[in-house]
Specification:
Blueprint lengths: L20 E6 L3 H17 L7 E6 L5 H26 L35 E9 L5 H20 L3 E8 L2 H7 L12 H20 L4
The structure holds riboflavin (RBF).
The site of riboflavin (RBF) has 16 residues, from strand 3 and helix 3.
Length: 215
């Protein structure tokens, strides 16, 4: 039976070629997680995101996702800053053999036109948080689902980096399998990880544009 559920395609095409995306996933319910992560990666690549610009990190369970996303975003900012500083610090602008220490009051020499400084790493444009919570006989499901959902929203609002909500909250194992496209027969289902890959590229692209003051 056809369904009206799920995101409709955007009118715009989003190019992931310049984007750097992190996938942070939990390891509980591995079979489902693996399919979701694969689905996300497939669509990131289909949108042009380079292999080298897809970074994957794992944490024990879904409860750990919000902190991990926050730290990964911060780490990528440190990495980008450090890379730029290292490159600039490593350039010998004065032509002398020993490195020149520039005091705070001194103006650094302007870069010449022939000097091209590339930044091998850049901060993440979006993070996809992937977990699978399956309801058990205790209240853990409710507590973890609620806490993680709110915390992931907080991370994206506080960092300004889109966090794609890839946490399945399933009442049964069958439901979880179907949402990863692993159900059986007619109930094979759709791999939601694919939607999250597309969402990351769309939100990463929007964010870049908005950051440049363009709407
Ligand atoms: N983590 C998940 O990602 N999915 C689950 O379905 C899940 N169920 C849990 C059920 C119980 C009773 C407990 C104690 C933990 C569960 N976790 C689950 C792990 C949780 O997210 C976290 O990794 C651990 O509690 C350690 O902080």
């Amino acid at each position: 039976m056809s369904s009206i559920k799920g995101p409709s395609a955007s009118d715009a095409q989003f190019d992931g070629a310049g984007l750097r995306i992190a996938i942070v996933h939990a390891r509980w319910n591995k079979q489902v997680i693996d399919a979701l992560v694969d689905g996300a990666i497939t669509k990131l690549k289909a949108c042009g995101v380079k292999d080298s610009h897809i970074v994957i990190q794992s944490v024990p369970g879904s409860f750990e996702l919000p902190l991990a996303c926050s730290k990964v975003i911060a780490a990528s900012r440190v990495e980008a800053g450090a890379t730029t500083a290292d490159l600039l610090g490593g350039l010998n602008l004065g032509g002398s053999a020993s490195p020149k220490v520039i005091s705070r009051s001194e103006t650094p020499a302007p870069a010449t036109q022939s000097m091209i400084v590339t930044m091998p790493q850049q901060p993440f444009d979006a993070v996809i948080a992937i977990g699978t919570l399956i309801k058990g006989s205790t209240m853990h499901f409710e507590y973890i689902s609620d806490a993680v959902t709110h915390a992931l929203m907080k991370v994206q609002l506080e960092t300004g980096v889109p966090v794609i909500f890839g946490v399945l909250t399933a009442l049964t194992e069958e439901q979880a399998l179907e949402r990863a496209g692993l159900g059986t027969g007619e109930n094979k289902g759709h791999n939601h990880g694919e939607d999250w890959g597309f969402a990351a590229v769309e939100m990463g692209s929007h964010s870049r544009r908005w950051a440049e003051g363009k709407v």
